Amino acid sequence: MNTRLVLALAISGAVALTACGGGTTKDSAGQQTGGATNSAKADPNAAVKEGLKITFLPKQVNNPYFTVAQKGAESAGTAIKGEVKATGPSDAAASSQVTYINTAAQQKQDALVISANDANAVAPALKTARSQGLKVVTFDSDAAPDARDVFINQATSNEIAAGQVKLVADAVGGSGEIAILSATPNATNQNAWIEVMKTELAKPEYSGLKLVETAYGNDDDQTSFQKTQGLLQAHPNLKGIISPTTVGVAAAARYLSSSEYKGKVQLTGLGTPNQMRKFVQDGTVKSFALWDPSKLGYLATYTAAALASGQITGAEGEKYKAGELGDYTIGAKGEVVLGPPTVFTKDNIDKFDF
Amino acid sequence: MRNLLRWETALVFLLVVVALTGQVSTSGSFLSGGNLFYLGLDIGEIALIALPLTLVIVAGEIDLSVASVLGLSSALIGWLWNAGWSLETILPTVVVVGAVCGAVNGLLVTRLGLPSLAVTIGTLALYRGLALVVLGDTAVADFPASYTSFGTTPLPGTNIPYPIVLAAVLAVLFGVALHASSFGRSVYAIGANEEGARFSGIRVKRIKLTLFVLAGAVAAVAGIVYTFRFSSARADNGVGLELAVVAAVLLGGVSIFGGRGTLFGVLAGVLLLGGLRNLLILQDTSTEVLTIVTGLLLLVSVLAPSITRRVATLRKAAP
To answer: Which of A1, A120, A123 sits opposite B183 (nearest CB)?
Structure first.
């Protein structure tokens, strides 16, 4: 057979199979359907069912933050006499959670508690899972709103981002160049916080602060470490760094503590007390913040149980009780807020162990 | 040929073992229609790319840039979609771009005489870099449901995902090209003995170039599938996928040195790797174990065919 013929055959076959129909453009595609539709009625007095099967799906396994959240989820599982199963991918790529979502549907679990790596990449699989009866609760990082029932927000973006800006302003003494070391460029929560930080920085009380760069460490220790190095080299006058990610802030602290910039360049961010204890004690970091991820996992799991038991449907205004955390109300767009983050300093850090 | 058949028989046997133990240990959910549908979705892109890559490896070359071409194709879809192009124009365009990427690999290998391993490690980085230039860090996700449902719904009335239908059609085309055409015989001849092939009048360079072009074009098609399946066009789509594809091809009994292997074996290899992974996840095996099992399978994939071959040779040599 002629080689050109083979080539032509294969390519035309591929093209013919992929291109069909006429003229679908961004403009003609029209509106995406949005908003979760719930036809079911909530029964606030329904008891939490026993023996519920709940899958806990973090962004990636072996990430200390999600390990703590998982402990919270498991303790909620014990409290509701259900079965919480933790599973997940080893990498935080956009699409790597999809297999696990499909598996949860296949295993006929009652609910799925997930922190989405990419709001859109998981959406088709979540929608399919929901159509098969799974209740979907997102926590930490939301999926597309029409693909889940309830989103558990760790704290409002405003609370977190404003808190971070205040911490860095206090640390650098109110003026100087600052930079942000973020996680992946697509992380829903990171981008929301960065936007609010920019709005905060525009306020008169922060007029002395100047944001010079936003770097992305991809939630990878080595990359974050090098990006910190890069930031300091690119901006000799840098006074402070905000790293609102547990991986980033620890890597940045490690770099700073062993460099000439220790104590001169201030670092704050979102970190876990166990990761940051050393750097708070040696003076690299004055203060940092975080919500308690175990409470987040606990609340997300309790919410999943409430959904699966019919106590709530995810509609705005519904109230439910989340075990030892007390009462919560579902807000606009099916969101529930855990509460304001905790600030850790030299004085209180030893009271926390996670 | 007899020795080759032996490895493929072993693969089919392994497949049956995995299927049966899976079926028993998951009390019937492993082979259920729903799970087979998900399994099909998970191996769709790997199956697609494995087809042309089989021919490339049989011809004694390698293409490690395929996953980056997939990423570039995905990024281009997002970028052109945002620029207002129609999908009917975008899709053929990205396939052509994929073919051009493949042609660049092929020309560097055949015209400059560079080793394909080095060339495609280079273009692995280059094409991924281009993808990042095209789409940057953003994700494009507002594709119409008529296209994205391609990745979430099966062929009406069955549990067969659309990507598998596409892979099956291409598998027939590639199967005929490799096993039932003079083109295919030439590919084997080149892989077995390139000098000999050249002296018997086979146009070695042209055939190799064709294979690289095919690999690029099909990788771009896989990029289309990937993008719609996750309704998400991103520059980092499919990072590391080349290793899964090469693993499947080698597990399928294709010799990394060229000249040996069948498309049937490769398809069995794809199915075995995908099936095992699916089964382990379904049984809640921890991710650490999953990584170890995948690594061991990779080793087995290289060792086992060469061991069976050596045993067969020894047996033949014995009186």
So the answer is: A1
